[in-house]
Amino acid sequence: MDTFCKDMLKMGTLRGFLHFSCYLRGREELLVTIPRYAPPEQAQFFDQQTQGRNGIPSLEGVELYASSPLQTRVSPDVKGMPPASPAQPWEEGAENSTHNVFLIGGYTRYKSPFVWLRSGSVEGCSEVSRDVPLKLQTMTDWQASKAHAWMVICELVNISCMPRPRNPLAVDFGYLEGMPVVHSALATAALMNCLLNVKGHVASAQELLIIADLQRMAHMHFSCLGTAADLLAEHAEEEDTVADDKDWRPAKIGAAVREPSFNLRRGESSKLG
To answer: Contact 56/215 with Cβ under 8 angstroms?
Structure first.
């Protein structure tokens, strides 16, 4: 369970996935929010005629969404354990939400992770209490399979999103491009580290899409680093100019003590005398 909790921590700190977002609620709980209907315009990021700000074209002829529904049917796990955080009254009636919110619990005392539906609806579980966990394929015989947290999230995306995406771990480049340049550099580095560890453990069609995202993010990452370096150099020059101006002040007539100056290069306050 310690390894699974560490996986949840990693996923909970990442930002920039297209089909889901995560929020850590302590070491043993992860909230995953998934839109139930994928907006059509999201596919435009991957259209062969569309290029992002960094000029990386997408794959040609690769389908983004599966044409057939998911074969696996989700059912409640009546033998499962309740969560440490019971469902609130407002969550019990939140079936018409445009998003599904799931709680992934990696409680050490249970010896196995569980997933509970917190908001929205999943076919086959609409009449079940929110405190009854879902029976997921990734959770079946978990002691033998040791599924990672990202595998559980991928299955949750597949049972929530319509149409079902070919790559549940797709990157939201519009979100990354809207970030401040330094934040974008950090976010792309973190996402690339995650996807590099994942790509060898997925189906070949999804791996192809992940590699395309990695290539585009790598270009974006180094572009952001270059821009950040230029901005830092310009900022340093401005600091030098301001520091030089503040080091020289005309004396006030009749003033016994001059005003203090602040040297921005050293960050130290000194008296002129």
So the answer is: yes
Three-class DSSP category at 42 = helix
Give the residue, 112 or 145, on which the prediction is more confident: 112
Q: What are phi and psi of 28, to 5 degrees?
A: -110, 5
Cα atoms in the Cβ-side hemisphere of radius 13 Å centred on 157: 22
Q: Check: CB of residue 260 under 8 Å from CB of residue 270.
A: yes
CA dist., res. 157 & res. 169, Å (int): 9
What is the sign of the dihedral through the CA atoms of 6, 8, 12 and 18?
positive
pLDDT tens-place string over residues 197-254? 999 999 988 999 999 999 999 999 999 999 988 888 887 877 767 665 555 555 544 4
Q: Are 219 and 55 in contact (CB under 8 A)?
A: yes
Instruction: Determine the residue type at 138.
Output: T
Q: What is the pTM of this model?
A: 0.75
The encoded tokens of residue 220 equal: 């974006």
Indicate if the alpha-carbon torsion angle 23, 25, 30, 31 is positive or negative.
Answer: negative
Tally Cβ neighbours within 10 Å of residue 102.
24
Count of Cβ atoms closer than 10 Å to residue 4 Cβ: 20
- d(C-alpha 115, C-alpha 100), whole Å: 12
